[in-house]
Design goal:
The complex is a heterodimer of chains A (198) and B (114). By secondary structure, chain A is mainly α. Chain A has 8 helices and 1 strand; from the N terminus they run αααβααααα. Chain A has one domain. The N terminus of chain A is likely disordered. Classes of the chains: A mainly alpha (198), B alpha+beta (114). At the A-B interface, helix 1, helix 3 and strand 1 of A face helix 3, strand 1, helix 4 and helix 5 of B.
Chain lengths: 198, 114
Amino acid sequence: MSLNPSSETGDLQRFTRAYPTITKDPAWLPVAAWTAVVLPLARVAYLHVLIVLLSLVLAIVATVLARRWFRRTYGFVTPTRPLPLLYRPAFGIPFWLTAIAIEWLSRWLGWPVHLGVLAFSALFAWSALASGGFRRHLLVLAAICAALAFLPLLIAEEWRQDVVFFAAFGTGWCIVCVMDYRVVTRNFAARGRPRHGG
Amino acid sequence: MAAEQSKAFEDIVASDKLIHEPARLAVLSVLSACESADFVFLQRLTGLQSGNLSQHLAKLEQAGLINLIKAFNGKYPQTTAQITAAGRAAFAGHWQRLDALREAIASLPSGERS
């Protein structure tokens, strides 16, 4: 095993710091796919509520199993405290409340823009920039959310807005899950080629 | 000037072989960037075989640079490694020595470097 001290150990540290956040999403792929497929279908084809709920339960069970598999296969890292601002509950909870409040306000005022979705777009863009280059693909989700915020300007019927919203957001989320997984496997493949000696 | 260079080169000889070994340096780099990491993660990242990684971790633990926490998650054994304060200081000190050495080499006239 050979190390270039200036670059490789720095890369190891950067990847280790980013790892806890990169590994949060991949296991959520079944729920993301459920959002992209079942929710739009439910609006278009009027699926029975039991089918929707049953498929959600299956997606959640698949997510729990995927999380376990991921943890056992790739291991886990406990991040150094204090966590970055973006991942602290003291930031997350007020952010959610604010996003819901401004979304409600924009609907109440009858504005044709979903301000809450726009806030999430900004959050995803910030997360992408703060990830040290590991999660640049979050910009895709940020762009999708930015476009979805202006959906009422493009589509008049509410049910059609819902179909496009869930299909586009779910697809964006699926992309993030797959790309996060790819970042993890590619980094392990690049750094962790099996070695016998030390 | 010559005395500084001489000291830097003495540092090479005296450099901590326990830390300087590439696999252990990689493990300490990873552990210095987090609270703790489990065995599987370290193995994936270093590419070492499990027996080999175990030996390196045992050496670091014996030297008091890391703590190994062995537990069970259900029926699966789980080993977690955590860098100690002494480990952090030794790791930082090692990099300072390497930096000093790099500066000493950079200050040599070009003819003397080769």
